[in-house]
């Protein structure tokens, strides 16, 4: 059963206060919302076992963030849970530190400065060549806006199913396809010469001046370079539409926990990276996004004095098992064996 969320209240709040790099994922309606007592800061979380795991930083005026963190910690403790914050930003780390949290780097967010984005010169030669090839072959780009017809949404579902193949959708911090969800956003489309849509991406916003390339899918048999061209078009469109920054989303860490004597937390991060890579090719995703930016903002896990390995396992379960598994302890046990 979906958590009860007042969409009108949420949309109004985000429009007035702005969101963050993951605020669009609230519209998946798979998370709980905690409002501070004054209703001026919201915190998004999911419960797993004895943890309340928050996605992103609290959303609201910066002057009220520290108080919101404390209020959520008090709420968690009254309910008998341990609070954990996932994908927090460097700008708020001192607030978490003052509340007794420790930190572990868990990923990086790719950011494109749209004012500087260009295909000109040697730096843009490879992408320019790829775009020109698709343009010569009469591939076209468009951005459409809600509402969408059932026929159009079924077309997108076919593309999504083709992209997924035998894989399953992820959850929590990773976007998944849902007709209700994609219907809330503008959608970028790449058409083949016959006019058929072969790839799409939903375009979310932080309600400020940053656009996020969110859910991106293509037909499995689409031409090589399809996503490159879709991204180029999106970045050009966003720049012309007045956005300052485009977020390419999160990528998990590589080169962590490689050594035999690495810390347990680092080994778990390494395992999560490799395990996720086997299903979603996260390593390839980082390489792909690096074609468009070299600007990466670190994101951290903020946790209190608790079992870090178990916390990381529980986070991995939330992401890789959409919907809480029936035998959570069994999942954690099977994952732990792969680390030994």
TrEMBL record:
<feature type="domain" description="Phosphatidylglycerol lysyltransferase C-terminal">
    <location>
        <begin position="14"/>
        <end position="303"/>
    </location>
</feature>
<dbReference type="GO" id="GO:0016755">
    <property type="term" value="F:aminoacyltransferase activity"/>
</dbReference>
<keyword id="KW-1133">Transmembrane helix</keyword>
<dbReference type="InterPro" id="IPR016181">
    <property type="entry name" value="Acyl_CoA_acyltransferase"/>
</dbReference>
<dbReference type="GO" id="GO:0005886">
    <property type="term" value="C:plasma membrane"/>
</dbReference>
<dbReference type="InterPro" id="IPR051211">
    <property type="entry name" value="PG_lysyltransferase"/>
</dbReference>
<dbReference type="InterPro" id="IPR024320">
    <property type="entry name" value="LPG_synthase_C"/>
</dbReference>
<keyword id="KW-0472">Membrane</keyword>
<keyword id="KW-1003">Cell membrane</keyword>
<dbReference type="Pfam" id="PF09924">
    <property type="entry name" value="LPG_synthase_C"/>
</dbReference>
<protein>
    <submittedName>
        <fullName>DUF2156 domain-containing protein</fullName>
    </submittedName>
</protein>
<keyword id="KW-0812">Transmembrane</keyword>
<dbReference type="GO" id="GO:0055091">
    <property type="term" value="P:phospholipid homeostasis"/>
</dbReference>
